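Slide 14.
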Amino acid sequence: MHLEGTPGQRLCVCTAEPATSDHDAMLLLGMTAPEPVTRPDAQTARQRPAQS
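Slide 15: predicted structure.
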């Protein structure tokens, strides 16, 4: 699927039957993915009380 506003990037979804070698390989691949990065400004905004 092409993502609008992100030239050159695509979203791909893959599945595998549980208890197969393909499923095991996908689980291992998922373990190698980097942790999501939270922007400091987004985290700070959640911690600040709302101002009126």
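Speaker note: Helices lie at 21-32, 40-47.
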